[in-house]
């Protein structure tokens, strides 16, 4: 997978639903102070010895959060993942690739029939229109209003390195899918050199015909991370075609329900 970290200056239709991009892996949560991972008191002074990221205001809160008792227990689940983060909550490139792979794997049963049936419809529409310019190929633009770190956290819910109860952390993590022609990327990357540098990788993945073996993906998270990836078509092309897709070329769903 190829990736860049950038904030997009030009947005496709679904991006209107996305909050502004921000720092690498962190998103706009960096406007909040750190809080205790157990009770949410501000300015916690203790740090988990194992991951050196999670913070607590007291030993009691640290024990409660680790022991899975009295409303705690989040950190026992999240500590192994947090070891891959810096103290500032940033993630290295290997970690980011792993999170993208996990998100794509969880979404494959949604993405596959969505992509297959949109390709079939787009191909038929193109064949029926003599004025329609042939396309270089199709892909799925996968976006999320959540940061890459939130998607990396085990379990469900919107959590990251800052603590468990910040205002932006309510609800499930979401993913938005947009079916696109490669030619539509011209407007998408307008005035954005970093994103445009990903287009050669995307172009090498797309195909103008039907019955493709893989789904080309352009991925973007709230924090500004963008990358190119691909996914095997789950269940096979024929099965996905039989399943059908009654929706349009855009869809939003909760990834925690997958």
UniProtKB/TrEMBL annotation:
Pfam families referenced in this protein's UniProt entry, alphabetically: zf-MYND
InterPro entries named in the record: Znf_MYND
The keyword Ribonucleoprotein is annotated on this UniProt entry: no
Residue ranges occupied by any MYND-type domain in the UniProt entry: 36-79
Keywords from the named record: Metal-binding, Zinc, Zinc-finger
Segments for region (Disordered): 1-25
Biased composition (Low complexity): 7-22
GO molecular function annotation: zinc ion binding
KW Metal-binding (keyword) present: yes
Lineage top rank: taxon: Eukaryota
Identification of the protein by name: MYND-type domain-containing protein
């Amino acid at each position: 997978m190829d990736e860049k970290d950038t904030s997009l200056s030009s947005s496709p239709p679904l991006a209107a639903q996305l909050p502004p991009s921000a720092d690498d892996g962190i998103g706009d949560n960096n406007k909040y102070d750190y809080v205790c991972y157990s009770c949410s008191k501000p300015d916690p002074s203790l740090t988990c010895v194992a991951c050196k990221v999670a913070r607590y205001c007291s030993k009691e809160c640290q024990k409660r959060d680790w022991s899975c008792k009295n409303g705690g227990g989040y950190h026992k689940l999240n500590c192994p993942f947090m070891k891959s983060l810096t103290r500032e909550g940033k993630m290295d490139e290997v970690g980011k690739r792993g999170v993208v792979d996990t998100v794509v794997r969880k979404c494959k049963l949604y993405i596959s029939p969505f992509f297959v049936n949109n390709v079939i419809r787009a191909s038929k529409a193109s064949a029926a229109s003599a004025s329609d310019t042939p396309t270089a190929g199709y892909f799925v633009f996968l976006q999320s209003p959540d940061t890459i770190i939130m998607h990396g956290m085990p379990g469900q819910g919107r959590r990251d390195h800052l603590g468990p109860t910040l205002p932006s952390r309510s609800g499930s993590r979401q993913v938005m899918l947009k079916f696109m022609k490669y030619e539509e990327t011209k407007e998408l990357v307008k005035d954005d050199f970093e994103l445009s540098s990903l287009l050669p990788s995307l172009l090498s993945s797309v195909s103008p015909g039907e019955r493709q073996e893989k789904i080309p993906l352009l991925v973007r998270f709230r924090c500004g991370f963008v990358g190119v990836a691909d996914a095997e078509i789950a269940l096979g092309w024929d099965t996905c075609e039989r399943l059908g897709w009654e929706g349009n070329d855009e869809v939003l769903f909760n990834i925690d329900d997958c």
